[in-house]
Amino acid sequence: MGLRRDGREAVIQFLYQVDTHRPLNIPEALASFWKQNEEPQSVREFAEVLLKGVLEKMPEVDAKIRTLADNWDFERLAVVDRNILRLAIYEMLFCPEIPPVVSINEAIEIAKKFSTAESGKFVNGLLDRVKKDLLRPARQSAGS
User: Fold this and answer.
1) pTM assigned to the model
2) Nearest-angstrom CA–CA distance, 42 and 24
3) CATH superfamily of 3-133
4) In this predicted model, which residue has the larger pLDDT, 117 or 19?
């Protein structure tokens, strides 16, 4: 597995922890997370950039999920799936250096690993709707 996949998986794990335990001090919780989950510095650096962005843009990302998840109560979405969607949508909307199809593919693979077989299809369906609304090519970074 690559550095970026490892970083994304760490982000999902930390977001899951934040979503279920609601720590008051995020930096302290992150330091504790890294003590329990030793990763190479390059993985941590990539993960922390994504994590900072997701946490910063979470209200916007969550609003997007709410509009796309027809017939689904946001709070009743599986916690893993909700956080996979958060990361992927954050990347698609705010990380022009990452091609949207990369974010979608990574999210599907992570959903298959950490959630259910059906989660991959669910995640793919929602993220495909996000991709259709993007004003940039899906298969290349915005700088290409």
Assistant:
1) 0.92
2) 27
3) NusB-like (1.10.940.10)
4) 19
